[in-house]
Amino acid sequence: MDDKTLLERAARAAGIEFVPQEIKHGHSFFGLWLKTNGEPYEGQRRRFNSLKDGEDALYLSVKLRINIEHGQYSVRAWTDDAAPVMVDETVFTPDESQRQFAMREAITRAAAAAIGSAHEAQ
């Protein structure tokens, strides 16, 4: 799954409304524009990218009750039976310099998986 699809699924799982357009910086996708007060206006747009922004990742983890566990070479994000759907995602990290990215990715992947699990449960 590419970053764009991953972010869109994670945002949908958390009930975040966004503008379904691809926004590029150079050649790499870097986020979604969130809707504010209905239609987005230039001065009111806010970029959402839980893969690069810790605040966005934390929002997902709180909204979806995602737990985080750090192993020596991995970060695990999962939900328990208190959450609406149960997911479990692990991202491996070769060294400490990648731990923050691995944590954001694990949370985003768990959130994206949650929307798939929610649709399967219905």
What does this structure look like?
This protein is α+β, with helices and mostly antiparallel strands and 122 residues long. The chain has one domain: 2-Layer Sandwich (Bacillus phage protein), CATH 3.30.2120. The chain contains three helices and eight strands. The protein has helices spanning 3-13, 54-63, 99-121; strands at residues 18-19, 24-25, 28-29, 32-34, 46-48, 67-70, 74-78, 88-92. The strands form three sheets. It has a three-stranded antiparallel β-sheet with strand order 1-4-5, with helices on one face. Strand 2 (24-25) and strand 3 (28-29) form a beta hairpin. It starts with a helix and ends with a helix.
Write the layout of secondary structure elements.
Elements: H1 3-13, E1 18-19, E2 24-25, E3 28-29, E4 32-34, E5 46-48, H2 54-63, E6 67-70, E7 74-78, E8 88-92, H3 99-121
Antiparallel strand pairs: 1-4, 2-3, 4-5, 6-7, 7-8
Helix pairs in contact: 1-3, 2-3
The CATH topology comes to Bacillus phage protein
Largest sheet: 3 strands, antiparallel
Q: Which value, in Å, is the CA radius of gyration?
A: 15 Å
Counted by DSSP, the helix tally is: 3
Q: How many beta-strand runs?
A: 8
Please state roughly what percent of the residues sit in beta strands, choosing from under 5%, 5-15%, 15-25%, 25-35%, 35-45% or over 45%. Answer: 15-25%
Distance between the termini: 23 Å
Mean pLDDT: 79
Helix fraction bin: 25-40%
Which CATH architecture would you pick? 2-Layer Sandwich
Q: Kindly report the spatial arrangement of strands forming the biggest sheet.
A: 1-4-5
Task: Give, in order, the helices and strands.
Answer: HEEEEEHEEEH
The CATH C-level class name: Alpha Beta
The parts where pLDDT drops under 50 for at least 5 residues are none
